[in-house]
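Support reply, case 0932

Customer input (verbatim):
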Amino acid sequence: MAVAGTETGGRSGGPLAGVRVVELAGIGPGPFAAMLLADLGADVVRVDRPGGQALGVPPEYDATNRNKRSVIVDLKAEDGAERVLQLAARADVLIEGYRPGVAERLGVGPEDCRARNPKLVYGRMTGWGQEGPLAQRAGHDIGYIALTGALGLTGDPDRPPVAPANLLGDYAGGSLYLVVGVLAALHHARDTGTGQVVDAAIVDGTAHLSTMIHGMLAAGGWQDRRAANLLDGGAPFYGTYETADGKYMAVGALEQQFYAEFAELLGLGEVAAARGDLGRWDELRAAVAARFKERTRDEWAAVFEGSDACVAPVLSLGEAPHHPHLAARGTFVDHGGLTQPAPAPRFSGTPTSVHSGPALPGADTTDVARDWDVPALNDPTTKGS
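Our regenerated output:
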């Protein structure tokens, strides 16, 4: 492995400097997982298909392809699989997000790749997993989290569950579990010389995220219905409230000492004592809601600024980068005119960065062919159209 912090094949340093990753292009959680590896310093080569991706944003705005390089290979062409196998032979990790069996039919499945490279970690990203009754079915985030019970946790009790964008399933239950699995398998491969297949299913990861709640459910500390519990909006001191200007404040004053500060700053008066009486929670919720409606979001944010009341303004995506705390930490960065979240987490000895913009399909073919010693990538028939 290259020394962390050095330049390797055009890549910047980071804790994964020197690690080579092949990403077979897809959408959603696979590219995000590969981006995280790239953010951590891995040399990620994205194998794009001719014609681009469905549901994709314009390549120049797709921040999930930052810090990567791109080549184009038509896997349906006669020699397409061979080009990918040559990359796999030189890689530490390969990531794909096809339905089960598709990579095998294309000639780039786990056995094909590991025949060339026994140390290869082969990461598979799917919604339903590699086997099971639904394995061959189409799906998206909302369906995956619906079956795990996670979607049923969100929203008001008298309204349909609220879809949390595609953050909970695709990225938390999918991408992050794939990355954890890949890194664990990579550690094992370096110890033993033997790679393995990582089956990262969004249903598995999302279910795993709810481990604590399942424990609370078994212990009788969680009701199996929406907005009836301490952490799902059931408690009047843990939820969101509308302000006078139609915006919102988020309240998370769980502990008594934090609740006391919250009640004082909000000016709840005697009704604050209803915290400990479930029978008065509706009364308390109405009082809190009425108080928040008396001022704007930013006015309330100023009231709670610097306190331990555990209250925060609900910001939009456009507002978030400008919050003083996030700005001071550099939580968001601007690279090439594109504002985006900075790499996370942070490392004291091997710092990470956004060092290149979104990889444009095929733009790096010549460099990758040289750096990875796969001259066949430069064959015009590989580049598609």
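We compared this against your earlier run and they match. Two observations from our side: The first strand starts at residue 20 and ends at 24. The longest helix spans residues 167-192. Please reopen the case if you see a mismatch on your end.
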